[in-house]
């Protein structure tokens, strides 16, 4: 079998497994998948040699549109604040659509992803990587003054977590809206900097 | 039995039930509690007439220190940005201490609270109420210009959710720090307003 065929078959089986995961309410092993789709164990094992390969294929399938969104936004010629907003809102809309299409399947996939976070981490790292590029572009135009990129990254991640962590959709779906996300991005661009505004009250302390 | 005695007994049993919930890994009913502490069913039923009364007593016990923190911060004479920071950081430190003392018990209590959120809602509403007071004080000094209080409330809740939602501790504990929380509060005070900064890109659109 040539490689494109193998890839196509892998993607087809991963899509089936993802759907089946939601319907069964738990992880689908290669054995279960083989029985469900009527494909031989040998065939499944040729495509997913390791137990975790099937899970990885499902994770890839889940994040594929997210990666495409991030790459499209980065390649666009929008100004930095517009890029930030699109970077978040497009992935948020995608998650929301998935959630509303089938809330219980969505919950199962989120829980699995959290439990086997080590298989998901590379996609989280990739999102961080792209966000760092956006931060650098923004800083080149004078935004987020004085902040190290890693510092800006962690602060922005924390202030936008309501729109990136799919679990939040499950509890406060109706409170998450595009216009609030836009207000959050506007707040970041208007207010995020290395300046100590005095909230912690320790800036005036000096060693004795 | 007079009321103070009943209250004391109720609090003692709730503390026992909270501890037992963590150790058992699931909700403790009045029956289970009666068997565990060697108190008669009749006695337990006198103190917790409804099934949900015990759960409510545990929830109260959990939030008691949070309510005390919020009231103390509100009554202080700190400037608004310092109040905001203390309002969040003191409750965050309390949650973090509880989490680190016994992560699995903490996880069980969080999960129960999420599953029976209707019993927890009044405390979430109370926190919103206190936050509205803080927002009003801040606006009286010129912060968050132009925003309706409810709008400021929901935006601030979303931008600080990493420090209020106990679930986050369980996944990114080491990334949540006091100095980042202070930077977030500083960002809110420097940047949050009703001004459309253009992130959503729709401000220029007009009906055709």
UniProtKB/TrEMBL annotation, chains A, B:
Residues 80-185 form the Tetracyclin repressor-like C-terminal domain. Pfam families: TetR_C_27. It comes from the Bacteria. Coiled coil: none annotated. InterPro entries: Homeodomain-like_sf, TetR_C_27. Gene3D superfamilies: Tetracycline Repressor, domain 2. SUPFAM superfamilies: Homeodomain-like (SSF46689). This is Tetracyclin repressor-like C-terminal domain-containing protein. It comes from Qipengyuania gaetbuli.
């Amino acid at each position: 079998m040539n490689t494109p065929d193998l890839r196509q078959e892998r993607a087809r089986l991963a899509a089936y497994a993802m759907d089946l995961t939601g319907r069964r309410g738990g992880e689908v092993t290669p054995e279960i998948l083989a029985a469900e789709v009527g494909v031989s164990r040998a065939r499944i094992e040729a495509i997913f040699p390791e137990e975790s390969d099937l899970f990885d294929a499902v994770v890839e399938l889940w994040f594929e549109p997210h990666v495409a969104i991030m790459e499209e936004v980065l390649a666009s010629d929008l100004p930095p604040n517009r890029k930030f907003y699109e970077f978040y809102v497009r992935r948020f809309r995608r998650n929301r659509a998935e959630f509303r299409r089938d809330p219980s399947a969505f919950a199962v996939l989120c829980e699995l992803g959290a439990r086997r976070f080590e298989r998901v981490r590379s996609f989280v790292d990739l999102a961080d990587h792209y966000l760092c590029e956006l931060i650098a572009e923004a800083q080149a135009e004078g935004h987020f003054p004085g902040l190290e990129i890693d510092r800006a990254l962690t602060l922005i991640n924390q202030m936008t977590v309501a729109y990136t962590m799919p679990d939040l959709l499950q509890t406060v779906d109706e409170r998450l809206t595009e216009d609030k996300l836009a207000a959050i991005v506007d707040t970041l661009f208007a207010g995020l900097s290395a300046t100590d505004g005095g909230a912690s009250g320790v800036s005036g302390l000096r060693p004795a």
